[in-house]
Amino acid sequence: MAMIMTRLQRFVRSRQLHTIISQETIKPSSPTPPHLKTHNLSIIDQLAPNVNMPLIFFYKNYTRGDINILKKSLSQTLTSYYPFAGRCLAPSVPQIDCNDQGVKFFEASSDSRLSDVIHRRELDETIDELIPNYTLSNNNPNLVEVQLNHFSCGGAAVVVSISHKAGDGYTMGKFINHWATIARGGSPKAPTFLSSKSNTKVPEFDFKGTNTVKYATRRFMFPNSKLNELKNKINASVNPTRVEALSSLIFKCAVGAATTLSGSIAPSNMYHVVDMRKKIVGKNLPEIAAGNICTIAVAKMADSGGEIKLNEVVDRLRKDITEIKEVRDVEEVGEVFLTKLSTLGGDQSRTYNFSSLCRFPFYEVDFGWGKPVQFIHKNGVLDGNIIHLIDTPSGEGIEAIVQLEEEEMVIFQKDKEILEFSQDL
After folding, report:
1. DSSP SS3 for 64
2. Active site residue 391
3. Which fold has domain 16-193?
């Protein structure tokens, strides 16, 4: 009982330290033309869960008077990114209503210091409070929400929460950098939203899961010096990239934690998101193509006999990536993705879902206060074994944001190989 009260008091105290001080809706500076009022979702857009993925940017040198610049530049950005100011009418409707209803913009004040937050290894309610409407389910019709958080030290965190229906990591990065460029007085290029040629509804896949287990999310930092050691350790038929090597390690150790806890070996597969923009041939892809233009590669380890070898994981993942054929347009990208999902149906293996935002320009997001001192990609409210890989602030390593079942996380974070190749934040 004493432990429960302590946790409750800590939670209540945390809530009292973070306060929403204003809220308004930012609408596009120019109305969306009539012929663009309905955006037909592509196959992949439809399959993507309507769950907002929060991107958190921390700045030391924010000036409070800059909020009007933020709002005005966001309004101008929404003219180019017009679906983001619209509404997802329902999860089952294959369109976005580009009605210019706008983006909710929250301003909040925190008694915490920026340095206390960015060095937290555990992403718990302290981080969640920075995120607008974080606890909403997938019924939230707003495709984008923003929250500007002021810390007691003078620093700030800009949080942009974007529905996966609106686009993938590439699209999210382009949108935020577009906004930041306008805030600095620049004139970035507008994107092209690739919509479906029809409003045909695709089969539904359950990405949220139905289990009721609790998950924990932790941050782990892997410097390049250690990643190079890891790459040298892996004797794969193809020289692994940093992302491939680290993904295989995390996958192996996560499966090991699950095996230790359950006492039995469960077949397990790694899913890894693959950007398909470079797979579209000819001149069928605009310079800035927005939306979800990706598929997944799978390293199936169901036949590993319980012993997962890093080189085998890398080889199988690389083989599946290289077998993805070139396509003509976003419609064919969707067909590839749908086929991939269909072939995985009925597989009772445990699934570990990886995505990498490494080399994406998230540390270039400068609203006029300099580059962010820290960027965090928080998972949405999706359940499951989910791993995001992002660059470290210096660019000299990779930070892994790992979500696993709570009891498995206790074992995972003590794994000797995780400890060998990682270091403190």
Report:
1. helix
2. no
3. Chloramphenicol Acetyltransferase (3.30.559)
